[in-house]
Design brief:
With about 120 residues, this protein is mainly β. About 0% of the residues lie in helices and about 55% in strands. A hairpin with a 5-residue loop joins strand 4 and strand 5. The radius of gyration is 13 Å and the shape is globular.
Length: about 120
């Protein structure tokens, strides 16, 4: 059973930074594509960033240049460094993973961590 657990959310002022962490149990991230999504109140869940096992990354246009996704396979963790935060970044942030070769849908999800950016 794969479980993902996010941490690091909180309240920060606009322009500030936060680093989110995603820890996995039951499976190593070294075999998984891992992504961050976010969902603001009353809105759909949106893609934020992804990291693939080859090291490539992709970002949503709204966070390019401000957010950085990274992974530490030795610690079985994925991070999302968020800088220059804006009030519109306020959302619940979710970590998601899918095993390479097992389809394109993200099968594993964390419970989410709240990020609130005040103006």
């Amino acid at each position: 059973q794969v479980q993902l657990v996010e941490s690091g959310g909180g309240l920060v002022q606009a322009g500030g930074s936060l680093r989110l962490s995603c820890a996995a149990s039951g499976r190593t991230f070294s075999s998984m594509t891992v992504a961050w999504f976010r969902q603001a109140p009353g809105k759909e869940r949106d893609f934020v960033a992804t990291t693939r096992i080859g090291g490539t990354t992709t970002y949503a246009d709204s966070v390019k240049g401000r957010f950085t996704i990274s992974r530490d396979n030795a610690k079985n963790a994925v991070y999302l460094q968020m800088n220059s935060l804006k009030p519109e970044d306020t959302a619940v942030y979710y970590c998601a993973g899918r095993v390479v070769g097992e389809g394109t849908q993200y099968k594993y999800w964390g419970q989410g961590t709240q990020v609130t950016v005040s103006s």
